[in-house]
Q: What sequence folds into this?
């Protein structure tokens, strides 16, 4: 018999390294045609870092993201990045980008002051132009500054970093400390069908709501959640390297025939994602970390849904058909 | 309000990915490139008495056969207790012992078969609960339990008075939860291509997810200053945390320094799954006190992390876990005892949700058990106990931009759940 159940979960997740103290640097080099080369060695591993980084630099400079090029490729020429981990890249690279953009604006103003024969205090920067406050028609564009500076031997490169505050040493007795200033929040409602004859669980509806602060790129963020759903369902229902653990690990999977990860067939057609954009006062443009949390709400919601459907608690992951059938059999015996 | 922020900007490098033109570290090859293969420990715990590589070196096409003696500095990782190549004891099955660089894979494998190695299987322990016992085989010389702050094998969180909280409760609910050993399963397996450029700089094209994260560690292994070591990569086929640990860069680098030739070390899927870091197994025992009205009066959590044979990122995971295992609920009386235990299996690396989501599974299932016990809805128990703006979390971390209630309300609406009016009107503010 197929039985349907509904489960929910509600969590929060920190942004950045546990205990802070994980800096990043950004450099922004103005080129002769007014385009900008950004460097930061955060890795692109499918999460969409480069798009989001370009968008944040563009926002900080008031220009289109198409003006920005990013290089993250090596440790000889790219600005320092602590790591690509801990749901930190959007947040910390974003804050470093805002600081680096301020530095570039300052340098462009210094150059423009010499060109326009005025004091730097008479100048303002907005949307890719430096202009005189008193006469906005006296202005220089990024391209004019870039070409002028390059061929007059001036190197205009904004650079700066950001350091999330280092947590105070934890109190020895209580373990109290401040591991992260910014937290993301999330909740899921998940419906499953449990086949009581085979023990197979199918996820039929996925509803996810996440507060990752300001969403820098909704397309990327939704992509992160799609991937999170896949990995969350895998963790809940399939993935186990050593099914006899902790008794033994002699039976150990070594390929994707034995180690089952979800395919598109395991993801329900009805998968809905919404963001609750609660502006983070510390984050870049109000953003919080996103990457990890979006794979964390699914496993408990699925296990809770299984109980709702058939009345058994799966107290060890994953909820394989074998486990479900054994639990159902035990339940029958006790009744 | 924003111009670029909030826009659905397509992936910066998406066209390259979907047309198959993006070049990943494992795609690379160079003229004259050698292939690296390693001899791995066949037992869960192995004493190595003697290694003789003479015959292996004689195989035509072999350029170098190395053991730990050839590694400039043999200790590495975030907590540097792991050996690049095993010394007298290999503490998990699959640990690297000997590495060879040869003209091709079959020559490399042939050379490995000629390595003379005298070794002995030692007693081992896989079950973390067994490993905590006094008479358990010693996984590490310093003991099977990690010592925190040089004094204690228990990492404690204490808030309020749990005994008082349990006394105030109408019901006590207990649960025990296990999470399994899990693989990251990225589409690209780990790869390094290491070579010396024309001026003697060591360049490594790596699948690492942190070019700088492992740079200091690697410069220490090679005993090279940072201007003699360049890491290249940063566009990789998935990582999910698995590439925060070094799996191939160190060995490929040493072989490149030794031979002066480009050396590629590319793991097979089998090696990736069996011998690299994993999301290691955890056990949680949770005891909760709850009142009939749904208020959680006390929570005690006993956390046990199976770290494997070397610390790798397992210590960081435990530190993070205990900070968040209490869940996104206000609980005034809370105690957490965390233990990190070493066993003879592959070390604990990081994995998406690192140190936290395994606990969230346990805590959120336990929360449903509480709701069922007192007969309130799973929304109600979460909304009633949710953190609010300005609260501090269980370890004293101030909370800003709190949305536990709002995300629950919104997801309820998405799923067509009509919450009672008082819950619809609740706010984190």
A:
């Amino acid at each position: 018999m197929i039985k349907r159940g509904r489960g929910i979960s509600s969590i929060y997740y920190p942004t950045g390294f546990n205990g802070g103290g994980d800096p990043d640097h950004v450099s922004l080099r103005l080129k002769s045609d007014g385009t900008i080369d950004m460097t930061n060695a955060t890795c692109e591993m499918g999460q969409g870092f480069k798009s989001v980084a370009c968008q944040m630099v563009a926002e900080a400079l008031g220009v289109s993201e198409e003006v920005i090029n990013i290089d993250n490729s090596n440790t000889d020429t790219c600005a320092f990045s602590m790591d690509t981990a801990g749901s930190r890249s959007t947040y910390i690279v974003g804050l470093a980008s805002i600081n680096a953009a301020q530095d570039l604006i300052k340098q462009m103003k210094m150059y423009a002051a010499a060109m326009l024969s005025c004091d730097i205090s008479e100048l303002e920067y907005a949307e890719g132009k430096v202009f005189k406050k008193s006469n906005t028609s006296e202005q220089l564009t990024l391209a004019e500054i870039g070409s002028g500076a390059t061929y007059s031997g001036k190197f205009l490169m904004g650079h700066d970093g950001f350091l999330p505050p280092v947590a105070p040493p934890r109190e020895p007795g209580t373990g109290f400390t401040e591991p992260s200033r910014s937290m993301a929040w999330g909740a899921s409602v998940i419906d499953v069908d449990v086949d009581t004859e085979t023990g197979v669980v199918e996820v039929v509806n996925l509803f996810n709501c996440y507060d990752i602060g300001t969403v820098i790129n909704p397309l990327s963020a939704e992509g992160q959640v799609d991937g999170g759903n896949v990995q969350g369902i895998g963790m809940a229902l399939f993935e186990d390297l050593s099914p006899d653990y902790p008794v033994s690990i002699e039976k150990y999977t070594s390929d994707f025939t034995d180690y089952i990860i979800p395919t598109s067939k395991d993801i329900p057609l009805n998968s809905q994602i919404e963001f609750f954009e609660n502006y983070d006062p510390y984050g870049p443009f109000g953003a919080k970390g996103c990457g990890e949390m979006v794979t964390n709400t699914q496993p408990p919601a699925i296990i809770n849904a299984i109980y709702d459907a058939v009345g058994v608690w799966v107290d060890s992951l994953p909820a394989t058909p074998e486990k479900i059938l054994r639990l159902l059999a035990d339940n029958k015996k006790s009744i | 309000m924003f111009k670029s922020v909030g826009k659905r900007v397509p992936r910066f490098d998406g066209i390259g990915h979907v047309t198959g033109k993006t070049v990943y570290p494992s795609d690379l090859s160079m003229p004259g490139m050698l292939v690296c293969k390693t001899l791995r420990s066949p037992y869960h715990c192995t004493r190595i008495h003697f290694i003789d590589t003479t015959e292996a070196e004689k195989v035509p096409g072999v350029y170098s056969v190395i053991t730990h003696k050839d590694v400039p500095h043999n200790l590495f990782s975030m907590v540097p207790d792991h050996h690049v190549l095993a010394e007298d004891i290999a503490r998990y099955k699959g640990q690297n012992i000997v590495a060879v660089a040869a003209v091709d894979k079959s020559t490399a494998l042939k050379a490995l078969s000629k390595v003379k190695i005298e070794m002995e299987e030692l007693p081992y322990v896989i079950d973390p609960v067994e490993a905590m016992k006094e008479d358990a085989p010693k996984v590490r010389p310093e003991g099977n339990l990690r010592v925190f702050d040089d004094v204690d094998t228990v990492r404690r969180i204490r808030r309020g008075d749990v005994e008082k909280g349990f006394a105030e409760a109408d019901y006590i609910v207990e649960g025990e939860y296990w999470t399994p050993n899990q693989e990251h399963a990225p589409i690209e397996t780990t790869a390094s291509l290491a070579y010396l450029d024309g001026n003697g700089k060591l360049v490594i094209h790596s699948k690492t997810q942190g070019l700088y994260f492992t740079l200091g560690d690697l410069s220490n292994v090679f005993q090279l200053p940072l201007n003699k070591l360049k890491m290249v990569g940063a566009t990789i086929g998935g990582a999910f945390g698995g590439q925060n640990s070094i799996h191939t860069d160190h060995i490929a680098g040493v072989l490149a320094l030794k031979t002066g030739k480009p050396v590629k070390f590319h793991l097979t899927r089998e090696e990736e799954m069996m011998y690299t870091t994993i999301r290691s197994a955890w056990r949680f025992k949770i005891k909760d006190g709850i009142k009939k009205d749904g208020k959680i009066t006390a929570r005690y959590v006993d956390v046990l992390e199976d770290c494997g044979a070397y610390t790798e990122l397992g210590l960081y995971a435990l530190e993070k876990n205990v900070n968040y295992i209490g869940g996104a609920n206000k609980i005034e009386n809370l105690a957490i005892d965390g233990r990190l235990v070493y066993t003879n299996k592959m070390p604990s690396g990081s994995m998406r949700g690192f140190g936290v989501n395994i606990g969230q599974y346990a805590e959120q299932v336990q929360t449903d058990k509480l709701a069922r016990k007192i007969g309130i809805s799973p929304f109600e128990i979460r909304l009633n106990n949710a953190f609010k703006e300005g609260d501090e979390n269980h370890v004293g971390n101030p909370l800003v931009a709190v949305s536990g209630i709002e995300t629950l309300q919104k997801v309820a609406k998405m799923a067509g759940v009509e919450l009672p009016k008082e819950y619809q009107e609740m706010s984190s503010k």
Observations:
- The first strand of chain B starts at residue 34 and ends at 40.
